## 1
Amino acid sequence: MTDAERDLRRLMPSGDPSAVADLLPTGRLVSTREDEEGAAPVLWLSDGPAPLGLWEELHRAHPRSGLWPLLLAPLRAGDGEFRPWGTGELSRLYAGEPDWYDPAAVLRTGWEYSTSVETDGEALDPEEVSELGRSVAPFLDGWPGVAPVTAGAAGSGGSGGDPEGAARALARELLAGDAQLRIGLVAAGSGAEALTVCGWSGPVNHEEDIAKVSAVLLDWERRYGTRLVQVGFAELELSVAAPPGDERAALRVAAEHFALCPDNVFQGTRTGTLTEYAPRLVGAARWSFWWD
């Protein structure tokens, strides 16, 4: 048994790490901050940049290996510590399980919190209330509910297109644009679940329980054919096989994005409005998220 296979068996004792062990460059296991000595690690991290094509090979092998590959980015370019991955800044202390949560309820709560006219128990002033209204128009009456399944999606609630092919295409694009990305492996059924398994805490200023984020991403996997490909310190990159096809549909999807990650709209657009954000989603093969 190789050293790589031995390490991977600590990640997933019941899996089949031999399916990928021989593909891997040198790397090491990473544990969360709370793990005691001898506790099972949560992530395998390559020592150096991800070789071209490796993510795709690992992705194809996932059904057998049970190890979901992630492209991992550091907090800053040239970060020698490769935070948070190399420093183990991961935590499962407040994490539940994705199947504890109804994704629609998670999004409703996120929307209501981000559109509240009170902050810390104090009412916003009229100008702030007006600005908030402009941000979430045309949904001034409240949470519009999750968007209908994209027209043409295959099956009942399932996404059309080719989700796995879209994921591999995005991986190629991301690797071509960033030579410092490393490979991570997590014992999980999907990228959405991998976030909870490894204890990623990127949205901690907005949501402490990463399992809620995983629950929403799992729902998007089913409805839009998304796949989680890259994770940074507080960023996610998802491939999308069944994006909205027009601006009307995109507005409803934009509301979901806002409910999960309000910084995408408040800080990611010039005007901080859904109506500016939504057109970017029409036919988009990639969704990006960033939490302040």
Note: The two ends are 43 Å apart (CA to CA).
## 2
Amino acid sequence: MALPWDFHPIEGERVRLDLLRDDDLDDLYALQSDPEVCRYLLYEPRSRERVAHVLARDAAAARLESPHDYLQPAIRDRDGRFLGTMYFELHSVDPDRTAEIGWILAPHAQGEGYASEAARLLLGLAFEELGLHRVYAELDPRNGASVALCERLGMRHEGHFVEHMWLKGEWTDTGHYAILEHEWAARRA
């Protein structure tokens, strides 16, 4: 594995993954305080103070080296506008080489392919640069947009855990999707 890995911006055709910055607070707050955006997330809409704390914490996450190290880069368009965030956490380094991926996109940016491109950039990092074996996503299966994104990325539906967690006053299911290094390589060929 190519660890440690220190964050540097990752460029795509239409998006750039970059560290969160202090001036992202308004956009991040708009995202994380929106009840519709938070509907399928693990948290309720957040206060501005909570988002400021999260921003400071996640902006400092810039190195992957050990299990539970994570990145939460901003997704930006070519003009630098904030579109959302990605999530990438190492879960195992040796011997399993596994990570989790996730995304949150601002409502105005949904349906334009930005999340697909950003996720492909992180999967490229995972498999082509870091040498990971497996990347997975866990999500609420009612979130059709995230399910469709997993499928577009070539992730396989591995499981559906019924009433897996008590969340926001109800039992919720968890969907599990994953892609392996050789599956990613075959898609890229």
Note: Residues 5-137 form a domain with the Aminopeptidase fold (CATH 3.40.630.30).
